[in-house]
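Example record for the data management plan.
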Amino acid sequence: PSRLMVVYSGTEGASQMAANLRNVATITQLGDVIFAVLDGVTYFGGGQAGATVLDDVRSRYNIDNDRTFLLSESAGTSAGLALGLQLRQSYFAAYWANDVNAQAQPALAAAQLGFAPWGNAGPGGDLVDADAIIAGMQTAGYRLPADAPYSGTGSGTHGSPDQFIAAMGFLDGKSRL
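Corresponding structural encoding:
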């Protein structure tokens, strides 16, 4: 089975995000992942578009249900939050909301899901929203790294490549198990 990552891009668009993912995938051990990239501007707030893509990819490929990830960035934040914390929360082993500009709380707790998802948020300068996302994940029983929300290099700058690389590195090795 293949690992899958659903990605909502920022304003750079789906094509540029796909290129960014290809460039970073090998250094973050994600070179074997199937990436399904949605344009965050086109699907702003549209979590259902991601659910449709998730269903389509799962019907076409042998996907490892325990190693399915979600990354949303900037303009894709609200759609990613809707998909990962509401519509298809149980599908994702790990979710990183990057360069956040909105907030939401998980609909279900880990006990209701039957597993504890991994989570983190890269503030990209918006610590208020990142803190709210992390507080909701913590209350829901998500597995969080010690520095949640992310506080490393680039955390204070929207669009930081360092924060993006940290997001990708976080997702590697995560599983629902």
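Summary line stored alongside the record: The mean pLDDT is 97.
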